[in-house]
Amino acid sequence: MELKKISDGLSVSGQVHPEDMAKLARRGFRAVICNRPDGEAADQPTAEEIETAAKAAGLEFRYLPVTPGIVTEETAAAFGQALIDLPGPVFGYCRTGTRTTTLWSLAMAKEKSVVDILAATKAAGYDMSGVARRIANGGKTPTDSAEDARFDVVIVGGGAAGIAAASSLKSRKPDLEIAIIDPADIHYYQPGWTMVGAGVFDAKTTAKTMGSLIPRGVHWIKSAVAAFEPDNNAVILDGCRVVKYERLVVCPGLKLDWTAVDGLVDTLGKNGVTSNYRYDLAPYTWKLVREMRGGKAIFTQPPMPIKCAGAPQKAMYLSASHWETAGVLGNVDIHFMNAGGVLFGVKDYVPALEEYVERYNAHLDFFHNLVAIDGQAKTATFEIIKPDTEPTRVTVDFDMIHVTPPQKAPDFIAVSPLADAAGWVDVDQATLRHKTYDNIWSLGDVMNAPNAKTAAAARMQAPIVADNIAADIDGKGPQSAYNGYGSCPLTVEKGKIVLAEFGYGGVLLPSFPKWMLDGTKATRKAWFLKEQILPPVYWKAMLRGKEWMIKPEKVSAK
């Protein structure tokens, strides 16, 4: 008997035997629900036998048989009522536990979101995506199984990747019916927030309305995605609306998991706790930096993957640069507390960065992962996990702390059939096509190719996805391959940048010849690029399908 916990009130398993009832009682269960009809197998104990043993062990018993493949609304409602009536925690079983889990999913549909239900059941080892549409419909079978809308291409996500992909695809196939699904009203130029936190950009310049950026001729469905049905070529929206597609592009970005650090949500934006990873907090970073005349300043970096892996230390360098200019740098104790073991993942850029670490007298605390923060006490707790050593914890005080939150795939992606074991969309790293579903592609932060998660990466990926979808429509195989290109302009001081450009395996992929711009050195040219060139390239080129300085590699013949 292998128990699988679905919720605090319910655990399930496959077929059990009378002798298991006493074991369940000893483990604290108070009631049993049987969802397996008698006579499904020759070696199967009857419900009556289980009931007798359950009562002998002091457990209440309820028999709600479910024929395989036929989970009715009435039985789901009865199951939900049983969970209310019976003392908990409750144990339920059928042949494998799937029918019991399905009943729970439908019974909870009015209380919990589709994502929460799919997450709970997936964690227990049960895939409920097949009943996602019923869950989204409050546990009831939709009266109309036809789609609410159908498009040639559906794009989930209206961020940098989604709008760029739509524009690039529309430029290749103008007659395609394309829809972007995204509930957001505002689209943000997130690479600019580092500059906002340093007083270089005004936050308002990094935001535009979503409606102003949706490409002409592309439909905008302003809704959140509840689930995917890739076998039916369908996306289920909140409210059980169904959008069908011929081809699907998945690029909703990633999730900033602020709640993963105990106490962080309660103190963000006050008590000296800030983050450039949020639009409304980046100006607070600049306020703290301007006002700081001395004390301890901490900059954190969580375990990978994160978007723009250089951003945590960019905040440190720009803050230190201001303190240096203001003549107070010697009064500030700077710490870069990194969950990883290196300053930057591509070694060619490390020497230039180390020069600035030394210049600003910053302390590098590797293998330190922020796990808790007390804003009022101005203390932060880090877990230290060094190789081949037992984890320890240390609590340090601070006057200012810039937090980079832990990051993961969005919940509705992680629980979907599209995800790998870690929750990211599972793609071929060259073609960006899904490994299982050949009419699905993914790009941007949400997919699992081993590249840096940056806007520059999405800018390169969008034409590749567009090329390969266009080729697929024409009956051809993949035409373009992604080499892992990403760019991270490391702002080491106000006026100079180390322009890191690299691909898979840390291979350097500079956009300019070395005589023109040496990316491994801090240069003013790179700063000019970041400050003056890249924002208009983003708004006026990338999001409009103008693929300046982008030449996707061709797929090599096998």
From TrEMBL:
Domain FAD/NAD(P)-binding: 151-264
Domain Beta-lactamase hydrolase-like protein phosphatase-like: 3-109
UniProt source species: Celeribacter arenosi
Pfam families in the cross-refs: BLH_phosphatase, Pyr_redox_2
Taxonomy of the source species: Bacteria, Pseudomonadati, Pseudomonadota, Alphaproteobacteria, Rhodobacterales
Superkingdom of this protein's organism: Bacteria
Protein name in the entry: Bifunctional protein tyrosine phosphatase family protein/NAD(P)/FAD-dependent oxidoreductase
